[in-house]
Design goal:
Elements (H helix, E strand, L loop, with lengths): L1 E8 L4 E11 L2 E4 L2 H27 L13 H14 L4 E8 L5 E7 L11 E6 L7 H17 L34 H10 L1 E5 L4 H6 L7 E2 L11 E2 L13 H4 L1 H4 L21 H11 L3 E9 L3 E4 L11 H15 L2 E4 L10 H9 L2 E7 L8 H22 L3
Parallel strand pairs: 6-7, 6-10, 10-13, 11-12
Antiparallel strand pairs: 1-2, 2-3, 4-5, 5-7, 8-9, 11-13
């Protein structure tokens, strides 16, 4: 038996793979070749995405909400109030703050004793840090509807094959009928709601959603807020959290491009950490709760990203991130990677949630565009991520 050590240097990452090679009858069989190919393919995907995403950031993609395809802020508000009124035993709706344009930041709570603070695992789901990333809030609105409707629904034979709940939303063809996820489990919904406290902010940046912009819509008075006149509008909320925020001034050559101190930039990080009403609201909420795990939804790239975003050093809990992430990967078939290997970020939500609060967070980059125009694509994306959210809630119980 021969041990051969191969070190592969990618453009932006180093992958070290030990290949155990067996010499059998003159044939060499390498046990890790497929893994090396998979990692190489992932690196190619990340490199291609990095270039495209940074170009998108530079030119700003404004995406107004198409009528009837995605919820407007007001449509979402009305729907959430109706659902809370009709399912008040398991759903509550509160505002955790208001934006510059005086829109409420709505938070949904799902739990069996929804008005109580129980000793159950707490899960946080967020969408629309960036207002032009429309599916990021749509998948969460769909998830809320799925949960409250199915909680009291009897187990149903959705695919008409004489069995119930035999093909839950897990990305697998469990009943081997050639279809996937076609008979979701009502019991699974009940178990999750009965055993966790789920907090959902579908539209974290409603001003940006309504304007169709990446940033929020608050006025800026120069990069540090010292100018009397308005110089620009908007802050990238996912660069405004207070973890390694100041690194931009120490190592600008490493981070400029995906983060910026120029207030005209589409990735402007704000005049100071937590300068924005939205990020202050989530800080206050997180500081008063015991969140175990968090998903923040974005578009695009079909990626599952975990900390760190500011450094290539592995997180202390990397094994846990990979283990849970591989479970997500099985459901949505996205690629799992450390966040920095898409591009480096400072002041993002996941690094702050993990670095300051010890929460296990992931960024899910949905789909292949900021806002797909095909309703079937949106529907399939939403159904798939019901399964992801359920899996994350179940995982929280064992953390």
């Amino acid at each position: 038996m021969l041990f051969e050590l191969y070190t592969i240097w990618g453009q932006n990452m180093k992958i070290t793979t030990v290949v155990i090679t067996f010499l059998v009858g003159g044939l060499l069989i390498s046990s890790s070749i497929s893994a090396m190919i998979a990692e190489s393919h992932k690196e190619d995907i990340l490199n291609e995405l990095r270039e495209k995403r940074l170009q998108d950031i530079e030119k700003e993609i404004s995406v107004p909400t198409p009528t009837g395809l995605y919820h407007t802020y007001q449509e979402m508000t009305d729907l959430l109030h109706d659902l809370a009124d009709n399912h008040s035993d398991i759903m509550s709706l509160t505002s955790i703050g208001t934006t510059y344009e005086e829109r409420d930041l709505w938070m949904v709570k799902l739990s069996d004793n929804v008005e109580e603070d129980e000793s159950e695992p707490e899960v946080l789901l967020m969408g629309a840090h960036h207002g032009n990333e429309k599916p990021s809030f749509e998948v969460l609105i769909y998830f809320i509807q799925h949960m409250v409707i199915n909680y009291t629904k009897e187990n149903t034979d959705d695919d008409g094959d004489g069995s119930v709940n035999e093909d839950p939303i897990d990305g697998e063809d469990n009943d081997e009928d050639g279809l996937t996820d076609e008979d979701p489990s009502e019991d699974r919904v009940r178990e999750v709601i009965n055993n966790t406290e789920i907090f959902i902010i579908p539209m974290f940046n409603p001003d940006g959603v309504e304007a169709g912009t990446r940033k929020n819509c608050a006025p800026n008075h120069g990069p540090f807020g010292f100018k009397g006149e308005i110089t620009s509008y908007g802050v990238d909320l996912n660069r405004n959290y207070g973890y390694r925020w100041f690194f931009l001034f120490i190592f600008p050559e490493l981070y400029l491009g995906s983060t910026h101190y120029n207030d005209n930039s589409n990735v402007y990080h704000g005049e100071r950490p937590f300068s924005e009403a939205e990020t202050r609201a989530i800080r206050q909420f997180v500081n008063s709760h015991q969140i175990e795990i968090c998903l923040t939804y974005h578009t695009y790239g079909e990626l599952i990203l975990y900390p760190w975003g500011y450094t290539k050093l592995p997180a202390l809990h990397k094994q846990k991130f990979v283990s849970i992430g591989e479970g997500i990967e099985k459901i949505n078939k996205y690629a799992l990677a450390q966040s920095i290997f898409l591009y480096p970020t400072l002041g993002d939500a996941c690094d702050w949630l993990y670095g300051r609060k010890g929460i296990i967070p992931y960024t899910i980059e949905l789909g292949t565009s900021h806002a797909p125009g095909d309703p079937e694509v949106i529907r399939e994306m939403s159904i798939t991520h019901v399964g992801v959210n359920l899996y994350i809630c179940e995982t929280a119980e064992s953390l």
